């Protein structure tokens, strides 16, 4: 139980803190104060009003010294800012780092490149989100509650329950909802979402905790797999600047049916041998439940979607053998792209 003496001591301590800290208002959130407030209910009835009044006085005196301290700090700040340049600009040669030593990160360049190709094909390019929730990561994508497929995504979560998106498919529901009106007035939805994703998995030359994906979503009255394969082939041929062989094999993703893995034959110009296939992305026809979750009638409209890693594209293009270089900040690596 707190006594009047305790209050006195705490008051001294807090007032001295107010007079030394640069953020005096934080003192009002001190656990000592909380403890004093909390003690009110355990004070015997006959002393409670005196105790309450004492705490109130303490609060008032804190408030007034906080305001005073803030005013002092403000004045001090005004007095101490020196706005003159620290050298005489007319006589001193300053060796600032020349701006031409910097360069764009290869991923920035390639993300723009990918967005440009799809924009030329008639897609709208948008950026994906970097913090999300369970509904966009799983629920809206036809992952049943507690389904083991959720575990495949190694998601990072905050204590508050937010999710660091493990794929750009988190954008599908938003893209579909935003495009619904256009679809219903006779148009189509064609969007590519690009951005950063995160997975809590073991790191090696082909797995990084932070990476980029590009997600395509197309919906119309009669979208079909042939159109999807044509779109993807055109994209890859444009990206690598040559004709390519493609193939697919069945794959399971809860949000597409059928689901496919899409592979290209590794171009000989990039060190590939004939018959060497590289799996580039996952894709398929959008599952009716995903359309329904966005309020789109799957009896009237069909869609396809794909999602793939941008690092993988870039690694093949430039013969980069370790994905971890991208996030390493190593100048030796970055200078190759300057
Ligand atoms: N989101 C899937 C992944 O990252 C890829 C995918 C996207 C598959 C869209 C199908 C359709 O694993």
Main pleated-sheet profile = 7 strands, mixed
Radius of gyration: 30 Å
Give the CA-based shape: extended
| Number of beta-strand segments | 9
Q: Termini separation (Å)?
A: 67 Å
- Range of helix content: 25-40%
Strand coverage percent: 15-25%
Average pLDDT figure? 92
Bound molecules: phenylalanine
- Give the low-confidence spans: none
Task: Output the strand order for the largest sheet.
Answer: 1-4-5-9-8-7-6
Helix tally equals 10
By helix and strand content, what is the structural category?
Answer: alpha+beta
Name the helix and strand elements from N-terminus to C-terminus, one letter apiece: HHHHEHEEHEEHEEEHEHH
Describe this structure in words.
Strands 1-4-5-9-8-7-6 form a seven-stranded mixed β-sheet, with helices on both faces. The protein is built from ten helices and nine strands. The chain is 38% helix and 18% strand. The longest helix is centred in the first third of the chain and has 36 residues, at 45-80. Phenylalanine (PHE) is lined by residues 167, 169, 253, 256, 259, 282-284, 305-307.
List the helices and strands and how they pair.
Blueprint: H1 4-20, H2 31-39, H3 45-80, H4 106-120, E1 124-127, H5 134-137, E2 156-157, E3 163-164, H6 172-184, E4 189-198, E5 210-220, H7 225-240, E6 246-250, E7 256-265, E8 277-286, H8 288-293, E9 302-309, H9 310-318, H10 331-334
Parallel strand pairs: 1-4
Antiparallel strand pairs: 2-3, 4-5, 5-9, 6-7, 7-8, 8-9
Helix pairs in contact: 1-3
The protein binds phenylalanine.
């Amino acid at each position: 139980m707190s006594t009047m003496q305790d209050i006195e001591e705490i008051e001294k301590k807090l007032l001295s803190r107010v007079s030394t800290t640069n953020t005096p208002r934080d003192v009002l959130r001190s656990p000592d104060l909380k403890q004093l407030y909390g003690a009110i209910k355990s004070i015997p009835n006959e002393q409670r009003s005196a105790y309450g009044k004492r705490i109130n006085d303490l609060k008032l005196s804190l408030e007034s010294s906080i305001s005073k301290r803030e005013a002092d700090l403000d004045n001090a700040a005004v007095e101490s800012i020196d706005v003159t340049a620290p050298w005489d600009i007319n006589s001193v040669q300053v060796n600032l780092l020349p701006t031409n030593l910097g360069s764009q990160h290869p991923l920035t360049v390639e993300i723009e490149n990918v967005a440009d190709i799809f924009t030329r094909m008639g897609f709208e390019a948008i950026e994906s989100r970097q913090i999300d929730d369970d509904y966009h990561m799983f629920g809206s994508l036809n992952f049943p509650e507690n389904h083991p497929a959720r575990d495949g995504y190694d998601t990072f979560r905050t204590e508050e329950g937010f999710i660091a998106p493990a794929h750009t498919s988190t954008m599908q529901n938003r893209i579909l909802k935003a495009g619904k009106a256009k679809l219903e007035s006779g148009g189509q939805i064609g969007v590519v979402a690009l951005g950063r994703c995160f997975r809590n998995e073991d790191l090696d030359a082909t797995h990084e905790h932070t990476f980029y994906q590009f997600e395509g979503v197309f919906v119309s009255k009669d979208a079909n797999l042939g159109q999807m394969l044509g779109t993807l082939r055109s994209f890859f041929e444009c990206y690598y600047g040559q004709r390519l062989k493609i193939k697919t094999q069945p794959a399971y993703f809860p949000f597409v049916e059928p689901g496919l893995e899409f592979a290209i034959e590794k171009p000989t110009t990039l060190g590939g041998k004939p018959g060497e296939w590289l799996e580039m992305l996952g894709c398929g026809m959008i599952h009716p439940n995903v359309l329904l979750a966005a309020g789109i009638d799957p009896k009237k409209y069909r869609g396809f979607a794909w999602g793939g890693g941008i690092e993988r594209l870039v690694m093949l293009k430039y013969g980069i053998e370790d994905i971890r270089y991208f996030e390493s900040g190593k100048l030796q690596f970055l200078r190759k792209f300057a």
